[in-house]
Amino acid sequence: MTMRINIKDQYVEQLETFIKSLPDNAIEIKSSLDEEISKRINDYKNGDLKTVPFGTGLDSIRERLSAQL
């Protein structure tokens, strides 16, 4: 079963205690998207992420649209 829950900050410690009380392999905690976002930001800053400026390629689309007018 997969479940997503939001825990109020005041109860995080109790949740962590509960999770530790479960048998090994009873629960699998997957990280949030924070790690993926940080990785992509670092890739972008290092120039490793292939990006294209927003306006690139739009000229040909504009020309085709203008031709239809």
Instruction: Describe the largest sheet.
Output: none
Q: How far is the first residue's CA from the last residue's CA? A: 55 Å
The proportion of strand residues reads under 5%
Please state the structural category: mainly alpha
Give the helix level as a range of percent: 40-55%
Radius of gyration: 23 Å
Number of strands: 0
In DSSP terms (H or I, runs of 4 or more residues), the helix count works out at: 3
Mean of residue pLDDT values: 85
* H/E series: HHH
Q: Looking at the structure, what is the overall shape?
A: elongated
* Uncertain ranges: none
Structural summary, described in words:
The protein has helices at residues 12-21, 34-46, 58-68. With 69 residues, it is an all-alpha fold. The mean pLDDT is 85.
Protein topology:
Blueprint: H1 12-21, H2 34-46, H3 58-68
What is the structure about, briefly put?
The protein has 69 residues and is mostly helical. It has helices spanning 12-21, 34-46, 58-68. The longest helix is centred in the middle third of the chain and has 13 residues, at 34-46.
